[in-house]
Amino acid sequence: MRTILILEDDENLSRGIAFTFEKSGYRPLTAGNIKEAKRQLEQHKADLILLDLGLPDGSGMDFCKELREYSGIPIIMLTACDLEIEEVSGLLAGADDYITKPFSLSVLRARVEALLRRTEAGSRPFICSGPYKLDADLFKFYRRDEEIPVSITEFKLLSYLMTNTGQVLSKEQILSALWDKDGNFVDENTLPVNISRLRAKIEDDPKNPRTIKTIHGIGYM
User: Fold this and answer.
1) How many whole angstroms separate alpha carbon 76 and alpha carbon 111?
2) Which end of the chain has fewer CB within 10 Å, C or N?
3) Number of domains comprising the chain
């Protein structure tokens, strides 16, 4: 069953969209703000996101750009603005499609199904390193053919480490790339805690790690 995350702060519209897709055999997840959407993505694997641009805790455009830093998940933007410049900006931000309000729910469903068909027909972006593989569209991580469940934060960390396989990455590099991009304070334990969680999932012996190695005084490799 395909899962769709509906990020829309209009509760009536959100319920209508969710009901339409549920009747069509989809599993809808709903969020009224970016914080809730991130929580949903931490807990569930979404196949597509319907993203409203006007949200109470931030810009949908900025959230789209943030998602595109680590994921190719299909995104359809929903907006009340029908200006061409807004549509162009949305597509440049990483959206795959754009639909203006008010819209027909049957047209929205057709757009979703068309985008999912295109996504599934195309080649999936994978990041591979040794026996490990990341599916950047579906936020899935595999060891050989076995899927290992990981959170979005763990996925982003794995993606950064695997993209830089064989390179020693300082703690500062990793924190700057994944957590501190906007100059926000990051607790010094954030990285070690997440590394420890990953090791518990992927290492045969987490106390003597062979996959994610600690380079003492510098960082990780």
Assistant:
1) 9
2) N
3) 2
111-125: pLDDT as tens digits: 999 998 887 765 556
Q: How is the beta sheet containing 214-215 ordered, strand by strand? A: 169-170, 219-220, 214-215
| β-pair partners for 143 | 132, 146
pLDDT in tens, 129-183: 888 888 877 788 998 878 999 988 899 899 999 888 888 999 988 988 887 655 4
Q: In what order do the strands lie in the sheet with 146-147?
A: 126-129, 132-135, 140-143, 146-147
CATH number of the domain residue 78 falls in:
3.40.50.2300
Examine the domain organization and report whether 144 and 213 are in the same domain: yes
Residues 137/72, Cβ–Cβ less than 8 Å: yes
| Side-chain half-sphere exposure of 59, counting CA atoms within 13 A | 9
One domain, residues 92 and 135: no
Domain region containing 116: 3-121
Same domain for 76 and 154: no
What pTM was computed for the model?
A: 0.59
Mark whether 140 and 198 lie in a shared domain.
yes
pLDDT on residue 111: 92
